[in-house]
Design a protein that fits this description.
Helix 1 packs antiparallel against helix 4. By secondary structure, the protein is mainly alpha-helical.
Length: about 230
Amino acid sequence: MHLADIGLTPMDLVLLAAAGALVGVDSVTWLQVMISRPIVAGTIGGALVGGPAAGFLAGAFLELLSFRHPPYGAARYPDVATASLIAGAGYAAAGGSGLGSLLLVIVAGWGIGWIGTRSVHFLRAFNTRLAVDSAYLARKPARIEIRQRLGIALDGLRAALLTASFTIPVALSATFANRITGRWEGESVAAGLVVVGLAGAVGAGSRTIGGAFKLWPLLLLGAAAAFLTVTLL
């Protein structure tokens, strides 16, 4: 497996890194025009490599999963903005048709989201040092604006590096998953896994919407539905 097996050019990677920076800062730092929502970010990632529908599909699954972690208070939640763009681009680059590769980019996107969260925490810890010298900043108020802009730029750089680091591995892995699942007749196993993933997402979202619901019974119910679905395929 090598780069020739995926439809990514150096210019695609540059555009994806730039888009990753934009959706990354949209989450909290700047803009906040909702392009950081997984369903939007995934579509953008897919569109940049010629497969907007594939990116939309990957982003839609990650959107469902993100319902489990509403961004309020001190809640910890994955940085799914950049991760969804990577997943959408990776799925589109792999052809945007295999169920096995769809499952892979969903799992990869969720994992990258938590990696992104760790990078956000490190950046925020660093940003506190930018404003610690209040006496220095007070002597010239323009310095506050400069450091604020520096914080925004660093967040964009963080998201761009995350995108540049993971897009190619995700695309290559998704392409490899396509080759494996293509050997399974009807891809029924991959279809079942995708249904399980969707059921888990719905179960997690239901728990968030209705606090009285427990997570694991809903996941088991989803798994049972997935088993029946696979049996009928």
